[in-house]
Amino acid sequence: MEFSPMLTFEPMAVRLLIAIALGAIIGLERELVGKDAGIRTAMLVAAGACMFAMMSITLPYIVSIDPANLPDVMARNSGFLPMAANIVVGIGFLGAGIIIKNDHHVRGLTTAAVVWAAAAVGTAVGLGLESFAAFATILITLLLYILRRIKLYEFIRPGHKVDENAE
Fold first, then answer.
1. Which H helix or E strand runs over 106?
2. Residue 1: which pLDDT band, with cuts at 50, 70 and 90?
3. Is residue 139 part of a domain?
4. Of these four, 2, 117, 152, 155, which has the most CB atoms within 10 Å of its CB?
5. How many CB atoms lie under 10 A from the CB of residue 23?
6. Nearest to 24 by CA among 146, 137, 139
C-alpha cells in the first residue's frame, strides 16, 4: 500500500462524516444518563480531532514540501506530527473543565474520559485508521454500558455507598 498523506476533498469529507458518526455513538451513553457532555460534544470533539489530524498529514503538501523529502520531514517531526500530538493537549484542557470536585466527590471523570476517547477516535479516523477507530468505538461504548450495568464498585468495595451521579 502506497503512503499518500495528501487528501482531496472527497476522502476528507468521508473521514469527517465517519468521525462524527463514531463520536455520536460514543456520546450516546453520556446522553442517555443525562450528562451535559453527550452526543453533540462527542461528535464535535471527534470531528475537530479528525480535521486537525487530516490537516496535520496534508500540511507538508500544502506548504509545497517536495514529496520526495517526505520521509525526512516525518523523521524530523516537522510540521504535521506536533499538530496531531497537540490534539491530546487541547482535549486535556477541555476534559479538565468538565471535572468538578465537591466535598469528597469528584464528578465528571467518566465524561472527561469519554471526551478524550472521542478525540482519539476522531484522530484515528483523520489519520486513515477508520477500521481501528470503529473497533475502538464499539469497545469503548460497550465498556461504558456494561460497567454501568454491573456496578463494578460493589465487587471492589462491598458495602461502600457510591453516588451513581458522581461520574
1. strand 105-107
2. very low
3. yes
4. 117
5. 32
6. 137
Instruction: Please say whether the beta carbons of 99 and 112 come within 8 A.
Output: yes
Q: Is residue 75 part of a domain?
A: yes
- Interval 33-52: pLDDT, tens: 888 889 999 999 999 999 98
Q: Which three cell numbers stand for residue 89?
A: 493537549
Q: Which of 137, 114, 100, 90 is nearest to 42 (CA)?
A: 114
- Containing 101, the helix (H) or strand (E) segment is strand 100-102
Enclosing H/E stretch for 102: strand 100-102
The CA distance from 40 to 60, in Å, is 32
131 belongs to a structural domain: yes
What is the extent of the structural domain holding 142?
Answer: 9-156
